[in-house]
Amino acid sequence: MAKKTAALPEGYLARGVPGDYDGSYELPDVKHEKFAQLVASGATYASAIKRAHPNGDKLATPIQSGKRIADKEQVKRRIRWLREERGRTFASEEGIFEGFIAATERTMEAIAELVELCRLEGLAREATAARGALGSLAGRTFTHRDNMTKADQQGRFETPKAKASLKEVLG
User: Is the pLDDT of residue 95 over 50?
Assistant: First the structure.
């Protein structure tokens, strides 16, 4: 027996989401919104669905479930907008250094999440490799963080050449 779905008004992508939706406001479906935010922050589809869905840890097919949600047009648009917004914030004139540190911390969180996911899935070798990558990134980042903070406080990131270089790398 096929599942009946309510017909959407003409011109709508989903319930409460008009066809011209640009992704700039939250999706009405809480699971889809949380999923989009997680994916935009760097989570995999499987990881995002496990965290966004109330029974995510019990899903039989998290990879397929995540892909199915990611393929919805309104979710694609929301993810794209969130990523672009993070890029704008990251490369803003006032917050280049802060954006760099925030992006590094998000990367480390994503790797830590990957380590945990590998561990949960019984992938010991992959978990060890991911843990090594996390340790290496953390070590390099925190070793140089004080020097970067001092350089930022001294205004070294304020020169047009430094800003252009950082924007090119980060933007």
Answer: yes
